[in-house]
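Appendix C: a fully annotated inverse folding record. The material below is reproduced so that readers can follow the format used throughout the book. The structure is listed first as tokens, followed by the designed sequence.
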């Protein structure tokens, strides 16, 4: 369906859905291409590992739980975003196909496709819109759930269910004996966090009714993640104190939003 943007924005404003009206031009976070490339390589590896495990569970004739499949779908959404920023059309298309295959519980098919995927940045970039999944368009809050689940720490078989981001951030900002900071790892963590919270910006949950704070917390999360990416990308020259401060601020936005809008905490 195509609706003219002006009509769409008018409708949205009339409905008081402020968060959509301000996202008409927004989308893929503006991050250095090189950082996107590193995240794409790391997350393609994560996807393959994850799908290998799901296929193993399936081959053992056990039931794959939703919580086990969700990160594979979420990581494919992220890969499609990175691919768009990198101008890698094939990766974008295949990442969305993998997500749909996992949604359809075809883990073997998803794994076979994922094994053929590679990261090949082009000079141009894509359209900059967040990629959509046909299966999620009816119930859009699914984008949020599948993105957020990547922050989780829990382990499924040998691989973490999510990307262990929530715990990594907490370890890095701990007052007593904070974890050692590796800029290369923090750079990838921040690219992932930027894209995940960008999805949050566009897809609030049902509890949000015209409240400005959702937009504030999600946009500031994207913003801090961008600043963290830029600083961490300096590698050995990155300012560690600054990075920990930025991570502290990011963590605060996570908590602020969860306190108000998350059901299960
Ligand atoms: C703008 C609001 C908002 C921000 C910002 C936000 N979250 Fe969330 N988060 C949510 C909501 C809402 C849920 C519940 C989603 C659901 O499952 O329906 C959630 C769920 C989660 C979950 C559980 C996922 C699961 O599978 O059960 C984790 C972990 C999480 N968030 C971590 C983070 C971290 C870490 C940050 C910051 C880097 C963050 N979130 C930022 C709103 C937010």
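Designed amino acids, in order:
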């Amino acid at each position: 369906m195509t609706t003219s943007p002006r009509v769409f924005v008018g409708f949205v404003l009339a409905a008081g859905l402020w968060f959509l009206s301000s996202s008409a031009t927004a989308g893929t976070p503006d991050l250095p291409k090189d950082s996107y490339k590193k995240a794409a390589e790391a997350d393609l590896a994560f996807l393959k590992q994850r799908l290998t495990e799901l296929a193993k569970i399936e081959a053992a004739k056990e039931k794959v739980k939703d919580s086990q499949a969700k990160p594979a779908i979420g990581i494919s959404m992220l890969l499609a975003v990175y691919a768009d920023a990198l101008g890698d059309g094939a990766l974008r298309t295949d990442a969305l196909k993998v997500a749909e295959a996992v949604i359809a519980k075809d883990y073997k098919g998803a794994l076979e496709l994922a094994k053929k995927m590679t990261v090949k940045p082009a000079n141009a970039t894509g359209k900059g819109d967040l990629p959509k999944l046909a299966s999620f368009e009816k119930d859009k809050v699914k984008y949020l759930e599948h993105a957020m689940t990547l922050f989780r720490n829990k382990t499924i078989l040998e691989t973490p269910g999510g990307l262990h981001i929530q715990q990594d951030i907490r370890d890095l900002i701990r007052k007593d004996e904070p974890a050692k900071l590796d800029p290369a790892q923090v750079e990838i963590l921040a690219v992932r966090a930027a894209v995940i919270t960008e999805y949050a910006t566009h897809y609030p949950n049902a509890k949000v009714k015209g409240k400005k704070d959702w937009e504030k917390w999600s946009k500031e999360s994207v913003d801090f993640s961008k600043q963290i990416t830029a600083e961490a990308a300096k590698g050995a020259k990155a300012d560690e104190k600054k990075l920990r401060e930025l991570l502290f601020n990011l963590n605060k936005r996570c908590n602020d939003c969860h306190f108000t809008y998350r059901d299960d905490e």
